[in-house]
Amino acid sequence: MQILKCWQRALRKIVLAVLLLSASAAPAQISIFFTPEYFVWQEFIDGNKILEETGPRYVLGATYKMQKNERGFLFGAELKGYYGEMHYDGATQEGTPVKTTTQYYGGLGEVRGFYRAVTGQEYSFDVVAGLGVEGWWRSIWGEGGYTEEWLVGYAKLGVELDPKGRGWIGNVGIKYPFYTDEVARLTEVGFPDDVELHPGKHVSLYFEGGYRFTKNFSALAVFDSWWFDESDVSAGFFQPESRNYVAGLKLQWAF
Length: 255
Fold this sequence. Notes:
The protein is mostly beta strands. Helices cover 8% and strands 68% of the residues. The radius of gyration is 20 Å and the shape is elongated.
């Protein structure tokens, strides 16, 4: 449960940062959102796809962002949790075909710094950098199934368009997982020990774009991804090169 403890400690620190920001005198916008997503997880060995998981994932979260009308620095944060059940179509690392269901549940906490580079009568344009931690549990059902626990620490850099009333809204950028940890709970299927792996690190992309229809309500198309290179071998096991993509519709309400 070491990954769970690390994720909980990081999440407590992010929540504390949000509370401290909320207690400041600066005006801020707090939003809640719900995002139904289509989730894809793929794994490759020597460039050949050996596994694909697809299905719906449901996300609930909240964001905080300081607001001001002049150029300068701002701070913000995001917290979210998610759950989904995926169709698993793949094979073991020995090549045995497997079709089953995979269950995902996890969460993310992120703190952000913004530089408001442009501010106009209708729109503001911000440069954004963030630090976050994401943890999830991947439970493979059926005979031979087991649980994986993932923890990823990451940095991101992007730009954001923010309307002052109704108008187009969006952000785009890149993120990099500077820390990766995966524990495969193989004792659940009779192995003497669990296996800890560190998937390789790779830059990936994110995007959100949509429209703020009223002062409170926005709808955005979202895309997010993780790209991991193959891990080193540990106790005869390794995490193959992995790609994760999600696309969905984010429904957001601002206070």
